[in-house]
Amino acid sequence: MPYLLRTLLFLILLPGLAQAEVIDRVVAVVNDGLITLSELNSEGALHFDRIRQQVPPEQRAETLAAARQEILQGLIERKLIEQRAAERGIEVSDEEVDLQYYRMMEQNNLSEEEFTAELAKAGLTPAGYKKNLHSQILRQRLLSIEIHSKVVVTDEEIEEYYHNEYGQTKDDGLHILQIGCQWGPGGKSASKEEARRRARQLRGMVQAGENFQEIAQSYSELPSAADGGDIGVFKRDELSPAMREGLADLRPGEISELIEHNDSFQFFKVLSAKSGNIITQAPLESVHEEIRDLILQRKLKEKFDKWLVLLRENSYIKEQL
Question: What would the DSSP string read from start to end of 220-264?
Answer without folding.
Answer: --SGGGGGTTEEEEEEGGGS-HHHHHHHTTPPTT-BPPPEEETTE
